[in-house]
What does this fold into?
Amino acid sequence: MAYELTIFTPTYNRAHTLPRLYQSLCEQDNKGFVWLVVDDGSTDGTQQLIERWRQEGKIDIVYFRQENGGKMRAHNKGVELCQTELFVCIDSDDYLATPHAVADVLDFWDDNADITRRDDISGMVSYRKMTNRPHTQFPDGVQTATLEELYNQGFRGETTLVLKTSILRRYPFPVEEGEKFVTESIVYDLLDQHYKLLVFRHYTQVCEYLADGYSANGMDVMLKNPRGYRRFYNQRVALGKGSVRYDTKMFIALSLFIADGKMFSMASNKWLTLLYFPMGLYQYWKLKRGKW
It folds into this structure.
């Protein structure tokens, strides 16, 4: 069977949450997808669990196990292994919103082929329902937009991105030696520079942030992965995204935290780095005390 969509799940010691996602995949009325699981070195029986599901044969599952290297390395491996036109990441603690989610996505994609075939379209964006956070609706009358345009026009909330695999391969997540995570925005900001997304006003997945997840531990995650986040803030300054003052301040603070002497040599804007250095120094003082 020829598939259009890969549902990719990076996972690490999430055998206790994966059954909910698996059940939502099995309930889909359109099975035109592959579930690609990249196991980032789990030690909780995840491999045996996935193997049992593979033997059940309810959905097509591709399983790949690697040494623990973090979500971004797992994501890059997933894109490398993907063999379908479309790629969507559904985390191991999330699940599909309805039994029609896959059908709705693929039908909408095919129904808008005049748009989706364009070279300036990287994929489609839909709602990601949060179990513990409110969100607004996409702005009226908008058919295609970048993520930045949606948020600038008042949207607040989380999104699901179904992206063209061929485009994702051009933008792998950067990885730093000894680090395991960097915000997804480091890639999404680059995609925004060159592509737009087809706007799909439906819920595709449900997300619940767990107490031990990346999103619930933002400060701790950043300080454990300072080089990746320094690269992210430096890139935002270069692209003119967000608040230049705030991003420069964070770049300075993380450079001081890393203490590798590369702050000015790698700064995308050396004059701003010099101008905001006192603020960055104060931000570094705050980070050292666990404050934003």
Remarks:
- DSSP finds 14 helices and nine strands in the chain.
- The longest helix spans residues 244-258.
- The mean pLDDT is 95.
- Residues 18 and 92 are 6 Å apart (CA to CA).
